[in-house]
Amino acid sequence: GAVIGILGGGQLGRMLSVAAARLGFKTAIFEPGGDCPASHVANFHLQAEYSDTEALKRFAESVDVITYEFENIPTEALDVLEALRPVRPGRKALKVSQDRLAEKSFIEGLGLSVAPFAAVDDAEDLAEAIEEIGCPAILKTRRFGYDGKGQARLKTSTDATAALSDMAGAPAILEGFVDFDYEVSVIGARGLDGAFAAFTPGENVHSDGILDTTTVPSRMSDATTAEAMEIAQKIMDRLDYVGVMGVELFVHSEGLIVNEIAPRVHNSGHWTQNGCAIDQFEQHIRAVAGWPIGDGRRHLNVTMINLIGDDMDRVPLLATDPNNALHLYGKAEVKPGRKMGHVNRITGSA
Length: 350
Ligand code: ATP
Ligand code: MG
Ligand code: MG
Description:
This protein is α+β, with helices and mostly antiparallel strands and 350 residues long. It has 11 helices and 17 strands. It folds into 3 domains: 3-87, Rossmann fold (3-Layer(aba) Sandwich), CATH 3.40.50.20; 116-176, 2-Layer Sandwich (Dna Ligase, domain 1), CATH 3.30.1490.20; 182-349, 2-Layer Sandwich (D-amino Acid Aminotransferase, Chain A, domain 1).
C-alpha cells in the first residue's frame, strides 16, 4: 500500500496516522524527537534534524506523498523534499502562514477583514504603530508563535517597552485589540480536484491563550455561518490548497474578522472525530492522497474539551460518562500548559 509521510510527531501527526491506517495506508513520521506521540502509532519513524539533507532525502524516497502537522518547516528542508515527492498542502500555504505579516497582508488582499496591524522591528516602529493603531493592542512575534506564546498585550502605550523586550528582538507585528463577541473557526477541506467542504464552524473558548473548548454548533446565524465557510473557501482556493485548513475568526457586531489560518488539521476540529462520519484527519488524508473528500456533514452536537497538564487527573471521572469520547496522546510527561488529550462530549443529535 501507499505510504504517507508526515512531518512532525505530535498529537496531530498521531491522529493523522490513525486515520491513514483506517484507510489502509502506512505512515512514516519525520521528527527530531525520540519518544513522540505519532511514533507510537505510525509504521515508521525517522528521527533526524531538518538540517540533515541526507535524512530528508531518505525520508522522501521512502514515501509516496508528504504532508505535515505544523507550519514551521524550514524552507531549505522543503526544497529537498519537494524535489522528490509532492508536498501537500503546497508551498504557497506555508509561505503565507509561517509569517503573521505575510498572512495578514494576504488575507486583507482578498478583501477580507483582519485586525488593524503594522510591522514592528524596533522601538521606533512600535511607537509609530501605537500611534496609528492605538491601545489596547497585542504585539505578536511574526514567526513560531502558538498557544498564545510570543505575545504581549498592551493596555496602554506605557506597556510598550516591556512588550518589546518580551519579543527578544524577534520581528513582530502590532495588532489592534478586537472587541469580539466570541470566537469561531472553520475547518475546511479542499481536494486535489478543487472540491471544497467545510465542517460546521465551532465556537472556541480560550484560556491563557490556549484553546480550552470548542462547541458545535456555534451561536452564529445561518447567514453568518455560510459567510464564515465562504471565507475559508476563498482563502483555500486562492492558495490552490490541498488538505485541511483551520481558519480562526472573530465574530464582531460589524462582521467576521479573520484572526489567523493554520495549514493543517486544527485543535478546534477535533470534535469531528465523534460528530462526523469522516473526521478532519481522514478528510486531510483523503485530500493529500488524492481521494474524493467527504462533505463535512455533522451528525451530532459536540463539545470538545482539551485536557491540558493536570486536567489528566480528571480522566478517571470523565471515563465514567458514556457521552464522553476520550482521546489521549500517550505523552509520557505531564507539564503545565501541555496538551495531553481531549474529550469529545456528545450533547445531542444534529
Ligand atoms: P494558536 O495556538 O491558535 O495558533 P496563537 O499563539 O497563534 O494561537 P492567536 O490565535 O494569534 O495565537 O491568539 C490567541 C488568542 O488570543 C486568540 O484566539 C484570541 O482569543 C486572542 N487574540 C489574538 N489576537 C487578538 C486580537 N487582535 N484581538 C483580540 N484578541 C486576540
Ligand atoms: Mg496560531
Ligand atoms: Mg490562534
